[in-house]
Prior knowledge:
- Helix content is about 30%, strand content about 25%.
- It has two domains: about 20-60 and about 165-235 and about 330-385, 3-Layer(bba) Sandwich (FAD/NAD(P)-binding domain), CATH 3.50.50.60; about 100-160 and about 240-325, D-Amino Acid Oxidase, Chain A, domain 2 (2-Layer Sandwich), CATH 3.30.9.10.
- The protein has helices at about 25-40, 70-90, 110-125, 135-140, 165-180, 225-230, 295-305, 350-370, 380-385; strands at about 20, 45, 60-65, 100-105, 130, 155-160, 165, 185, 190-195, 200-205, 210, 215-220, 235-245, 255-260, 265-270, 275-280, 315-325, 330-335, 340-345, 350.
- The longest helix is centred in the first third of the chain and has 21 residues, at about 70-90.
- The chain is globular, with a radius of gyration of 21 Å.
Amino acid sequence: MKIKSLWGKPPMKSSYDVVIIGGGIHGLAAAYFLGRDHDVRDVAVLERRFVGYGGTGRNTAIVRANQRSQENVKLYDEGLKLWPKLISELDFNMMFLNCGNLNLAHSEAAMGALRLQVSTAQFLGVISELLDAKQCKELVPQLDLSDRLTHPILGGMFHPPGGTLRHDAVAWGLAKGAAKYGTRIHQQTEVTGINVENGKVVSVQTDRGLIRTSRVLIAAGGYSTLLAGMVGLRLPIHVLPIQAMVSQPVKPFLNHVVSSGAYHVYCNQSLKGELVTGSHMDPWPTYTTHVTAQYIKHQAEALTELMPCLRGLRFMRIWGGLADMTSDMAPIIDGNDPAEGLFLDCGWGYFGFKSGPITGKYLAQFMATGSCPDILKPFTRRRYQEGRFIGEIAAPVYYGPWN
């Protein structure tokens, strides 16, 4: 029996009103909302591999709105509220599990930082609670509260609206929805050049020929820096590998996402019973989506120290992805700069999956009207030139000169 594609396999045209580079959650969301909200239907999504191949399919699919800065929290909170509506209107089960997020603290300094995050969230109307150690154990009874830990648990921050989704389902659902509104999705199509004349985008060069267009969105995750370089634009982004893995399935016991900054580990239990776990990024820039034995060792040690009941559990699969990290851990969202018709959606680090649909919705408005929505204005790349870092981390890191 022949299986019908959710988004078809359309022929390539020689011109489109809009070309979106990147077939992940951000590019597909922008295409969907261009058609749904603005009747912009002559859209091409160009993907070098296949839909959802990059960061969209290489993460732990956690969604939350408990970041540190007001700029980020506003965007992520609206994004969290969008998921159920999006699932309903796409008529596609993305397996949204609203299980809540528990962030552990292991020092007085960490507790102070969580107090600030909770205050920011509550000021913006986002549900977030500061817990002591006993309350953390009530949420996750398997936690070890003894002083045997390298970093004993002092408390935590609980964010009930957070949860998880199925990343492949998100990509497929958005691709199906975008195709319904006329978007043509071209997989196995590599962009080799972006052409600008008289300060305006005029075309995109691909390995399948030239495509004329007046609007281009770069939403290619870790590869966005290379694409921006095609128009002479250097972005303050480092591309760093990030690894994740899943265990063998076990009886359901973990009802929330649990994370620890001190141990550099986060974990949740999937609907299949697997423990899905990830950690911090590797410290060296590279485009290699490698996996390492050192990382497996780290995850095993961290998880079994926090939850001793996991000793003896086996990891079954490990994978690597790319995180495009800016110096202030906030994205770069921009348009018509340095060329009219050029739009950027990149620099998400490991937060990109959480914000895809809501960012796509506002970017579609930006691309259709030419006016940047207020919620996106703080994320302009010009903030680096003007010294207006977003306070997502304590001290911005200087990565070198930029345009």
